[in-house]
Every structure is written in C-alpha cells, then in structure tokens.
UniProtKB/TrEMBL annotation:
Chain's role: Component of the cytochrome c oxidase, the last enzyme in the mitochondrial electron transport chain which drives oxidative phosphorylation.
SUPFAM superfamilies found in the cross-reference section: Cytochrome c oxidase subunit h
Pfam families: COX6B
Cysteine-cysteine disulfides: C30-C65, C40-C54
Protein name listed in UniProt: Cytochrome c oxidase subunit
Keywords: Disulfide bond, Mitochondrion
Top-level taxon of the source organism: Eukaryota
Amino acid sequence: MADVIEEKIKNYKTAPFDARFPNTNQTRNCFQNYVDFHRCNKALSSKGQEITPCEWYQRVYKSLCPMSWVEKWDTQIEEGSFAGKI
C-alpha cells in the first residue's frame, strides 16, 4: 500500500476532483486539506509511523491555497490560536 501512495504522490500534478467540494470555489477544500495534513501528521507522528501518506494532503493544499493563507495558519498554529481542530 505504501508503494501505491508513493506512486500517486510522485505522479501528482494538481488537486484532483473531490466530490465533497463540487463547486468552483475551492476555499473550503483548501482549508480542509490543510487541516487533514496536520491531523495526519500529528496522528502518525504520535504513533512513531512514517508520515509519507500525509504528503498527499500537503501537496493538495499547496496547489489550492494562497501561500499567504498558509503562512497565516502556520503562525496561528504556533501561537495556539488556529481555528481548526488538529
């Protein structure tokens, strides 16, 4: 399974269609993938597992989100004031 995930990440070009977000506005999709990346990273790191599967979420949010948003959210996480549940 890890090979399949690594292959998908390697061949990744842009965010694929996500049925949870069918509309043109991808703001929610951006935010959800950002939160999913940090949740995945936290969950796998706490178990001492490899975080390679989490890279998928990171690539998706980096292709959808403006970097200014990501920088703001990173700052909020460091300060403990981020609105999402991670």
